[in-house]
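Could you please consider the sequence and fold appended to this message?
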Amino acid sequence: MGSVTPSFERYPPLASLQKDIYRPLPSFPSGLPELSESEYRELVSTALQSLSQALESGDVLSVKSCFFASQAYWRDVLAFTYHLRTISGGGIIAPAMLELSKKRKLVEGFQLMPDSVVKFSATATLEWIQGMFSFKTQEPAAQCGGTVIILPEEEDNGFVWKIWSMATWIDDFELYPQNEAVLRNPGRNLVDVEEIDTDVFIIGGGNASRSDSSSTSETLGVDCVIMDKTEQAGGNWAERYDCLKFHIQKSCCQTPYLPYPDEYPAILEKSMLVEHMKRYAETFNLNLLNSSTVEGSSFNESKGTWHFKIRTPWGPKTVVSRHLIQATGLVAGNLFLPKIPGQYNGISIHSTKYKNPQVLSETGVKSVIIAGSGNTAFDIAEDCAKAGLKTTMNVRSPTYIFPRDYCFDPKGLGFYDLVPPDFADKLFVSGPLAIGGQISRDQYVSLAAKEPNRYKALAEAGFPVYDSSQGGDLIHHLLEKGGGHYNEIGDGTQLIISGVIAVKAHVQPAEFTSTGLRFSDGSTLDADAIIWCTGFEDNDREITINTLGRNPFPQSQDRDETMLGPGEIALLRDELWGLDIEGELRGMWKRHLRVNNFWVTGGGTNHHRYYSWHLALQIKAALEGVLPAAYRGVPKEV
């Protein structure tokens, strides 16, 4: 076993969306003349041509002059950095882009897609012109794309339109084009073999692995084997509570190559999710081992290979792979249950153990406390109340509520209802969070400000609530807090307003009584059952250790000094989730600093769809020996 020093700086450090990433957005100058569509196109074309010529000249100050002076952003997804990077400030973007365009051998600059140019009004004080473009690189040979946003900047001779934001990405490798026809090829026989050799071993069989990482990798000629602990395809959904539903619309959640059936409603329910995942696995003959777990593993640093011992219904097997994808979810660890004293004689379960109110009723339950106020808590509270159980929600602190109709707003996620999801992803997911996050927040603030009394009745019913106009930020909840909000899908709020669901607010459970709970204010509440919608313990390194089987494999007599076991991998890998100083999610879909051939996927459904392709491209390039080093530098500002 290789030696590992247990004390080192965590990488990358955690940053704050509000303190480190968001900066005040610029204002659009007043008094500028209205322009025609052709003039918009000419302005974007000129900005891209100026940047292309500056890069070709090699003059770093000319490159810098192409960018908006007070603030500018360049987000690259592989095309230049072969990493996921957001570089800010024209004085830093310029030397980085100049260096990388030479390394990648940018061919003929950036080519505007004329029909893509639009004027966009983001807020009451900010509008811009944006367009999409294509370009090619030679090292390695790749077809790439991007988006650009330009703003007017005042100079001595008037206003000049400069690049405020730029995003670049890879579409395809020229030597390794995507081939969707292979998705219909027969799968491998994994049952009758004891030793499995594969390019990629994926642990976890949910949406991220099954519908994205495997299928996108397979279209590049990369062999993948998926292992999952559940009994069937779609098992991660099948094992959840019966009333489960997605809290965003179907158009945002489409899976690549096989969309959800047209007859499915806008809000997908549990049975639909399960059936679609079964259909997906069967249609594309995915190499899937269900009801299986890892008992031990190791990574041979010198050979670049992973070794696994797994337990399956068909007996023990060994797996050797070049790459590993952890697709278990980031909160798949120990259930979080408050450690409070006392003895309770009723039913006390975590939300993951809840199935439906009928199961509770069959044991004599007539009343229930729902501890929590996020999406799951509202789903279960509504389910129990509609079944006739006396239901009380315990809400410790104000909850951010995001209305259903905001999901369908065409300036937000409603855009996915209007265009194909891969096109919407390029506009919504590819750009810098410093801009996209704030624009999203401000749009929802504007919508909330138009209806200040939307949740007045809910607050008067005793539920502590705040909305986007009162400081709520959906991006913060999704990317930093990891939940704790309610996307208002369903009738939960109306059931509270009407008194069908009671609320116990601003207190937290302090002690069990024999018949219920005593709270922090000394009050008590009796119930036949308590359902804890309290999430999971935050220990993602323990998740990695468990995912890898906890034990080294092979055992010590067969190992050498270049092998890393589960504990060492968990210690050395990047931090996961939360944002780094550039606004990038930590450790997701990209190479880790201290562990090679180790990848993590997860997040929301649009994350799965968009980033799985870029994850697959990195693995394909690594297998073919053409993956450049990840660009991690920050050049000196000019």
Summary: Residues 32-173 form a domain with the Nuclear Transport Factor 2; Chain: A, fold (CATH 3.10.450.50).
